[in-house]
Design a protein that fits this description.
alpha+beta, 10 strands, four-stranded antiparallel sheet, globular, 66% helix, single chain
Length: 667
């Protein structure tokens, strides 16, 4: 008994220390915001130097606070209200840990942890930054932390206690008890919140009144890291929706899906425009604006998820008061940055001049298409709210609108990408650039014609998607090969900078993803029927037989599982086991699809409800190229990682050159 009381006391102390650490991190963030900014304005080195230890201390205290909350979930400390509402002693340990961020309060603590993490990393690895710029960047990053620390402590405190702790908790939402959803939020937040660094660099540069090639070099790695994490986070969420929800789709144009997709689009545009700033000192205004808008859309996504403004399977419990607080944060940072942007327009005069046919023009076209496509998604996402507010009409904007309005811009990007990537800087000749791409174009066209000739139904979607995807992939390979010269090509290929390889891999990943989405949409087969035990039925080339439906039990759920035998021409293909799970604690059912994953197709079966005559509703899909969607996104992320690994050396080199130049000027 004494040991039990001592254990409970120690657990309570860890939790209280976590709460105290959160308050200390808030106070440190205030110091980090105020002191370095004043120091940078007054040119006081001592005050500017406060930024680095403050950023590191803020991260350490926030990490301790987050660790304390995680410990409370792991040990089922039901004296905490948050643990009681979102955990249960019978949950597997993985879902106890992921329950830490599977709720509003815990996820916001993860939010500020990542804000402080990026600030600490900038403090440690930003030695090449000019002291004034570094102090301002960390100050702006601290200000973002201040806003969200205040939001947590005053409206969403995760350390609130219950006067009388219950014997057990209410459990985590069953939809979140899945490996895909356990890792999806951290990756997504690393991308979402990581864009705060690009924002901080933009605002710091506006305050300083200096945007040049060095600034473009410094901001790109942070944007690239955020884009990589956001790519992986979106892919994990898409994969989870595919196999967990039982509806057979990978993307629904859900408001919360769109809320993460819009910053991803703008981050991609920001990456490409920052290249122009770095190489040619052009597009300064546009690049700064993209940095502001990318983080602004991240804040808007946070608002959508937590305000109850739009309903979604992904949204947290809504609270209008919290929504207003986040709206004020979004208005302050986005509105303030845009006001500063307007006031500093004269500091962003472009120096580089380029012709109509040039890589700069290609990147501008890329940016325009990405920005307009983001605007289309924004309009489709927010229009139901605007229609209800302005016209008192309830409208629903679904996949047909987004598919019809968004697809043409992706087609445009696919067509110009290989050409734009190979155009020379400043000015070039279109014919000379296109000529090396003739084989890539011919091969892509041949594949499209082949797909058209062998498909049934004669839909243009699949062949067009195959053409665009192949054109991008072969164009990326041609671009990489063209950089090797005329002699010793294979040797030079291996010695090319990682950024060149990263560009090729990322573009090829985009092409593969575009083809896979088009191929799946065009060539998918669907069958919905009432199936009976022992009675085979045909779906495409496969014969399926539901052998039995049985009840099983999992760690914290009950399951109704069907055994479905799939054969082809009498040969065994797979034994599929779709499930319907029921979680007694939360009293909520979930669907687990039975999927046979293959290289070029998935065989997908979802179990529905039992019928009065003893049959079961069974949904069967043959989904071609599905795995290539996530394979393509992984290639995009891999390409980003390759480029990021190269950029570290180049950024350091650029920083040294800048420092040397400043030293010479000072002498």
């Amino acid at each position: 008994m004494v040991l039990a009381h001592q254990w409970a006391y120690n657990r309570a102390m860890i939790t209280e220390l976590g709460h105290f650490a959160l308050i200390l991190a808030f106070l440190i963030a205030i110091v980090q915001t105020v002191v370095p900014m004043i120091g940078a304005q007054k040119r006081w080195p001592g005050w500017m130097a406060v930024a680095e230890p403050a950023a590191q201390a803020q991260f350490l205290f926030t990490a301790f606070s987050f660790g304390a909350l995680t410990w409370a979930f792991m040990t089922s400390d039901f004296s905490l209200k948050l643990v009681t509402l979102n955990s249960h002693s019978a949950k597997p340990m993985l879902y106890k840990i992921s329950g830490t961020w599977g709720n509003h309060e815990g996820s916001m603590l993860l939010w500020v942890l990542i804000v402080s993490l990026f600030g600490a990393v900038a403090a440690v690895f930003g030695g090449g930054l000019p002291p004034g710029l570094k102090a301002r960047v960390l100050s702006v990053q601290g200000a973002i932390g201040v806003a969200f620390f205040a939001f947590i402590l005053f409206t969403s405190n995760p350390f609130l206690r219950l006067e009388v702790p219950p014997l057990d908790g209410q459990g985590l939402n069953p939809l979140l008890q899945d490996p895909g959803l356990a890792f999806h939020p951290p990756f997504l937040y690393l991308g979402y919140v990581g864009l705060s660094m690009a924002f901080s660099f933009a605002v710091a540069a506006l305050i300083e009144g200096r945007i040049d090639a060095a600034w473009g070099r410094w901001v790109r790695p942070w944007t690239l890291a955020a884009w990589i994490f956001l790519t992986l986070g979106i892919a994990l969420g898409s994969w989870w929706a595919y196999y967990e929800l039982g509806w057979g789709g990978f993307w629904f144009w859900d408001p919360v899906e769109n809320a993460s997709f819009m910053p991803w689009i703008l981050a991609a545009a920001l990456l490409h425009s920052a290249i122009v700033v770095e190489k040619r000192e052009s597009l300064k205004s546009w690049t700064i604006l993209l940095a502001i808008l990318a983080f602004g859309f991240s804040l808007m996504g946070t608002f959508i998820v937590r305000s109850g403004l739009l309903t979604s399977v992904h949204a947290f419990a809504s609270d209008p008061a919290r929504g207003v607080f986040i709206l004020l944060i979004m208005a302050f940072f986005t509105g303030g940055a845009l006001t500063l942007f307007a006031a500093r327009a004269q500091a962003m005069e472009a120096r580089g001049v380029f012709g109509l046919v040039s890589r700069e023009t290609g990147l501008v076209a890329n940016n325009v298409l990405l920005a307009v496509s983001c605007f289309v998604v924004f309009v489709g996402t927010m229009w139901p709210v605007l229609a209800e507010m302005m016209f008192d009409r309830k409208l629903s904007v679904g996949a047909p609108f987004f598919n019809a309005a968004f697809t043409p811009f992706m087609v445009g990007i696919g067509l110009i990408l290989p050409v734009g990537a190979m155009l020379p800087w400043k000015r070039g000749k279109l014919g000379r650039t296109i000529w090396p791409l003739r084989y890539a174009f011919g091969l892509a066209l041949a594949l499209a014609v082949l797909a058209w000739s062998v498909q049934s139904g004669k839909s243009a979607l699949g062949p067009v998607g195959l053409f665009l995807g192949s054109w991008i992939v072969f164009g990326a390979i041609t671009d990489l090969w063209s950089r090797t010269g005329n002699k010793g090509r294979f040797g030079r290929l291996l010695r090319l900078p990682r950024a060149d390889w990263g560009k090729c891999v990322a573009h090829a990943g985009l092409g593969i993803t575009m083809f896979a989405i088009a191929g799946l949409t065009a060539w998918e087969k669907e069958d919905i029927r009432v199936a009976y035990a022992g009675q085979p039925f045909q779906v495409g080339p496969y014969e399926l037989t539901m052998q039995e439906v049985r009840d099983t039990r999992g760690p914290n759920y009950y399951s109704t599982t069907a055994d479905v035998l799939a054969t082809r021409d009498g040969e065994f293909v797979a034994m599929l086991q779709p499930e319907k799970r029921s979680y007694p604690v939360s009293r909520m059912p979930t669907t687990e699809a039975g999927i046979d994953y293959r290289f070029t197709r998935d065989l997908y079966v979802a179990l529905g409800d039992e019928q009065a005559d003893g049959g079961w509703t069974l949904r069967t899909y043959i989904k071609p190229w599905t795995n290539w969607i996530w394979g393509g996104t992984l290639l995009m992320a891999l390409g980003g990682l390759l480029s990021l690994s190269d950029r570290r050396f180049r950024v350091a080199s650029g920083a040294r050159k800048t420092a040397q130049a400043q030293g010479v000027a000072a002498e």
